[in-house]
Amino acid sequence: MPPSTLPRSAERSPRPGPVANSLAASRLGMWSIIFFTVAAAAPETVVGGGAVSGFAVSGVNGIPVGYLAVAVVLGLFAVGYVAMSRHVENAGAFYAYIAKGLGRTSGTAAGGVAVLAYAMVQVSLVGGCGVGAADFLHQAGGPALPWWVFSGVGTGLVAVLGVLRIDVNGRVLGVLLLAEIAMILLYDLAFVTDPAEPGVTLTTLNPLQLGTAAAGVILVIAFTGFIGFENSTVLAEEARDPRTVGRATYLSLALIGGIYGLSTWALTVATGPDRIVAAAGEHSTELMFVLAAERLPAALVTLGSALYVTSLFAGMLSFHHVCARYLFALGREGIGPRALGVTSPRTSAPTAGSVTQSVITALVIALFAVTGWDPIVHLFFWGASGGALGVLCLVTATSFAVVGYFLRVPGHGCGRWRTLLAPGIAAVVLTGILVLTLRSFGTVLGLPPGSAAAWALPGAYLAVALAGFCWGAVLRVRRPDAYARIGMGARSATIDRAEEPGDAN
Length: 505
What we know:
Layout: H1 8-11, H2 30-41, H3 43-58, H4 63-85, H5 93-102, H6 104-139, H7 147-162, H8 166-193, H9 215-225, H10 244-271, H11 276-283, H12 287-293, H13 298-332, H14 351-371, H15 375-408, H16 416-444, H17 456-478, H18 480-485
Helix pairs in contact: 2-8, 2-10, 2-13, 3-9, 3-10, 3-11, 3-13, 4-9, 4-10, 4-15, 4-16, 5-6, 5-15, 6-7, 6-13, 6-14, 6-15, 6-17, 7-13, 7-14, 8-10, 8-13, 9-15, 9-16, 12-13, 13-14, 15-16
């Protein structure tokens, strides 16, 4: 029976036998997908770490309005993204969307960029978690151990969880996420009810800040906090009902944007809008807890510090799953090593992809430990910012891909708003944000004007994209069977150069 005539449940089931090339279907409900998505965004890490570092490095106080602005733009993006998710079910989400909307060679380029970007984000969180755990233990009266010890332990735990059933990981993330969100909201309440001079003001939420020269810096720092909101579609193959992926995407985006905008604004209320930059520079990632200690019992400050570490751990675990699934998707479809494209017969986890990401993480941590490079600036902040740049490139390209896909697919059953207008507007706005980001990337990293290092990461993405594009062209000529499978997901094993309506060449 052809795959198109199989019942949906049968089409999505893993193949029997010792080795499968499909992820486990029907493992995740809507809330589990939301837990994975929001945990990847790591709310307490972004508010207490990324946003505070952003205030200090950039020297601007308009980051709260930046979070709200980016949430609106990504909401427009999500309209077309969710509409296309009903037609594309693939663990390599951006890669598959771009392949179907802009062409298979563009998809191979996107696959390389996605692997690099998400690996950078995941490893950056491992570094931040190690530093956070070491600081917490020392402040609690424990021994002063090197940060890389804790990063190594965290990498080991994630490596074990990464090869277990996905629903087990969903429950772990759910507990950690609910605890950190409750603590963040408690801190927000304390900050707003006990403000610094001049009291509760909305200065840092003024949209006019986005019309200044600092707009690029504000937007790129804000966008960094949203990395992970798109991961709901990565889990579509493992959802109990793929239709819940859309709802999970919208709810996750609203939750992330709301928490970021509220909590970073509350920080500026607690210090005073004019003092947030100086306070962030003085206290660094301890600022949120220093402010909390002035307003709340010590036990709640200690608990919040512990949850900051678990927030980082939850983020690194969630992004580990994303990295493993991208590697799996590329291997399954013949773009990467085929050994990566198999799953465990017992757990249906992408074991080879998971182990590969664990090895990459361990090697990077070892490199930083040996060289003595700063794990906060050069690994955590630079790594997360560099990863955000790659994801921004992918989101922008995906907006164009959504429009391209629906222009080719007749009878898709979606209105023009979802298929053309919203993704078209998002594509234009995201392109503008990308240009501003590239122009101000050195400032975001705290580098002097004209620094060659500011172009190293954008240059690396360009090189990877060009290599991926060339590899796609090679596959088209030398391995047409693999080329035909690009972007097909679980169906790739049953496809023999056949194309669906809407597949781009």
